[in-house]
Request: fold
Amino acid sequence: MKPTNTRNPDYYHKVVDCQWACPAHTPVPQYIRLIAQGRYGDAYLLNRESNVFPGVLGRVCDRPCEPACRRGRLEAEPVAICRLKRVAADHREDITDRLPKKPAKTNGKKIALIGAGPASFTVANDLAPLGYECTIFEKLSEPGGLMRSNIPAFRLPEKVLSEELDCILDMGVELKLNSPVESMSAFLAQDWDAVFVGTGAPRGKDLNLDGRWEDGAKDNIHIGIDWLESVAFEHTKAIGKNVLIIGVGNTAMDCCRTSLRLGAKNVKVMARKPRQFFKASVWELEDAEEENIEIMVNHSPKAFVHKNGKLTGMVFDLMEYVIDDNGRITDQKVTGQTTIPCDDVILAIGQDNAFPWIEESCGIELDKWQVPVVDETTFESTRKGVFFGGDSAFGPKNIIWAVEHGHQAAISIHKHCQGKMLTGRLPNEVDMAPTKMGMFEWRYSNSYDDAERRKMNHVELTKRFAELDVEVELGFTPEQIATEVERCLNCDIQTVFEPSLCEECDACIDICPVECLSITPDGDEDTLRASLSASEKIAGQDLFVSSALPMTKRVMIKDENVCLHCGLCAERCPTAAWDMQEALIQIHHADDQDEGAVP
Amino acid sequence: MTSFTKPIIRRKNEPTNELGLVRADYDGAMSTLCAGCGHDAVTASMARAFFELSIEPHRAVKVSGIGCSSKTTAYFLRESHGINTVHGRMPSVATGAIAANHELTYIGVSGDGDSLSIGLGQFVHAMRRNVNMLYMLENNGVYGLTKGQFSAAADMGSTAKKGAINELPPIDPVALALSVGATFVARGFSGDREQLVPLIKAGLKHKGFGLIDVISPCVSFNDHKGSTKSYEHTYKYYNPAVHADYVPPSKQIKAAYDAGDVMPIELHDGGQITLRKLENGYDPRDRAAAVHKLFESGQSQEIVTGLLYINEDHKDMHEMARMDDRPLNAIPYSELNPGAAKLKEIQKSFR
Ligand SMILES: Cc1cc2nc3c(=O)[nH]c(=O)nc-3n(C[C@H](O)[C@H](O)[C@H](O)COP(=O)(O)OP(=O)(O)OC[C@H]3O[C@@H](n4cnc5c(N)ncnc54)[C@H](O)[C@@H]3O)c2cc1C
Ligand SMILES: Cc1ncc(C[n+]2csc(CCOP(=O)(O)OP(=O)(O)O)c2C)c(N)n1
Ligand code: SF4
Ligand code: SF4
Ligand code: SF4
Ligand SMILES: [Mg+2]
Reply:
């Protein structure tokens, strides 16, 4: 095989599974080490550089990092990355004067941001300190987008959200509330240097079955995201005793738990397919089931039933599926029907994009699903100077994606305003830093701790439902923090190999507790992998292959998949051919795009 | 000195052997040898061989003498029996243990110092008796533990770390073994576990005395230029001439072999050793040929390795001495100790 090029900035980045999986590439192990040292403020600020809302995301992030976490490949459960982020936010000292500031003077460039969700706020966060005059236009009376209007306060307290939005507004960002943009062409006629659309995917899908529009009945059938918004703004304060939620995604989970807090006694989540096909995350399902929500599988909605001008129930087809070895449904059949009584139904079956306010004449192309045509790197629409990001760009995703889109759009807007090519972006880079301090001493905690994942404590069931905004999760205790930080394997402390120093004594191979090293004659990937006792090809993780070794011309190989980053190979190597080095992955944002440019 | 331990990790999807044990179940305490010592690689190879053979750790016995090499019995098979004897006395203790219970699997670990100087007499007689054990002689040309004096295995003309030249002729354990009746004689190299692990497996399954002389460099005292037991020198003159694989009874494929290509040798347990990479005409069952090959290669400095001689027909100690087939702990006490009257009777027969 060709020797691995570890200088490719993506090589070591990929090894840090969590950081690679995070859309905003948050340097997870680095902030976990800061938490371990009690440097909560530093950990918070480091998080903020990439994900902007550590307090929010430490509670409600979709956490693509956790399923990717290396620890989860070695044993049952990943590091509680997300909840450690919350630790940084909860315990940070006052860091106000270390936040990016409003510059003394603006650069005179006017940027309009439509929609006050995480995407627009990220763009403002990146551009305001550079001198841009940012104005956010929001339809509703409060900023935050779905984070405010849809994510319930028992998961995300209002205060946490407001604090993190306020520190961006404090950078001199103007916020115009109750200001829907109703005509894009009129808006574009104003004097903007760039426009960013962060209006989300605001239309909840409906279910046009028999009985949907029956008078009387229709008032008890709600669209999930609209209903949550109306609860958040206190227009809706009650719901019937028996509630059916249709769908098992994120929205469904929030709808069922919110219903309990508005007085429902018997809430059922109705799923069309078996559990493995649910869109909601495992932890969301667990949290709902802890509150005695019943989740019923294989029920496909058929009709709404009403009597005397009142909704009384819903009819479902009972489904049966044929699932193949790859876990795909290959066939289905209806085995019967059932009617389930209820007082209210909440539809939580997805969202669509909708831009009734963008006229065709604007030159902003939308495809047949009303999704704008947006460049995946620059986030520019088909009209120059108009950018999209967050759910409005490619359909509903999540907060951390909205943040990453915001970062990328900010780079583009910065370049656009300077008249530079949008695609001339800085590539990621990696800096390597030594970690050896002496015999058996490294600059990180390299010993393997076999503790299991700490379980988040919750408010008692009897105390949660009285008020809408009792935060259910209590945060980690000091003991939990101390244990959980040690579970992180420090995947960014890389095993760096220098072939010319290798004596081929096999010391590293023998000491490696997970047997991921081997010295073997060169060959194709399958042959090389066969020489490892337990090599698994998993998506994303490579096989490291050295150049030919001096003595025998064989090669050193390493399966990056299971390495614990324990450093024992480097500890045991008599010639220091293996070394542990910290890979600092440089992810660029709008503020460092001009570095090195000729003034 | 060490201040770290190798963690024991139960990984998901770890390969297991027939007993359901994982490779790490055959590890021992953390090695305290110098980083890069060849002995650690031999330890790992022994652990792997026991794992692959699915030998229950508590049915194995490790015996050793004194030296860095002899220390290594602590570093594998943490759940088996073992004893570190006095310097050079391992062969007699092993002989006694095997006389008491020949049903266990015995592995001896020793060094060139331990076996070829103070222990030479014991070593030779264990081979003569064809004691049923595998004897690992971890050969680094020096007394590692006592900081690098030449051992009796040091080659003539090779130099010590500070420059002194060795003028005494070496004792070659392989040549010695061939001359005194060992029935499984091999040479290996700590740096080639592809060859070493199968050799150890074959040696453990061979009935009778098996010797593997393993070149196992001492990184601290004998890994310099001028040493003929350094990694560099060994890699340079290394010739893996005969490759032996052990095939258990259950996995045998009765295939026709091309002469000179693969040679199968039937073992007592019904398994088989298959020999590969044989030079044309070389037959490891021919003791004279083995001696010839050894001295011939010695002239070109070439280090010829692999299974050089095997004899499955020779009786082992147990058989030669017509000992009871049962281990002593399975013989009823009355039979073991027939009493004073019986003793008198025996004594009388000698008068
Ligand atoms: C019920 C529910 C729960 C969720 N839970 C999570 C979760 O736990 N974790 C997670 O990561 N993600 C979650 N999400 C998804 C997440 O909230 C969104 O992906 C994210 O908020 C998208 O951000 P955005 O900036 O693109 O737009 P949004 O947050 O949707 O904000 C868009 C804003 O634009 C405003 N707007 C729209 N049109 C106009 C206009 N014409 N003029 C002016 N203003 C306008 C809207 O009022 C809104 O305030 C959830 C979504 C829902 C529906
Ligand atoms: C009776 C006795 N004499 C001398 C010694 C000192 N001594 C300890 S180890 C050793 C030689 C070990 O050499 P070797 O067997 O080659 O082991 P290595 O350390 O090289 O692996 C000697 C002479 C001793 N421990 N006991
Ligand atoms: S072990 Fe730590 S660094 Fe590695 S993937 Fe998990 S959280 Fe990230
Ligand atoms: S750091 Fe080295 S010894 Fe530790 S698991 Fe990774 S390769 Fe193995
Ligand atoms: S002194 Fe030599 S033989 Fe002993 S442990 Fe160190 S390297 Fe190995
Ligand atoms: Mg020695």
Observations:
- The pocket of iron/sulfur cluster (ligand 3) is lined by residues A 16-18, 28-29, 69-71, 78-79, 81, 488-491 (CB under 6 Å).
- The longest helix of chain A spans residues 399-417.
- Chain A touches chain B at residues 73-75, 439-440, 447-448, 450, 503-507, 509-511, 513-515, 533-534, 536, 551-552, 562, 564, 566, 568, 571-575 (CB under 8 Å).
- The domain at 100-202+353-417 of chain A is CATH 3.50.50.60 (FAD/NAD(P)-binding domain).
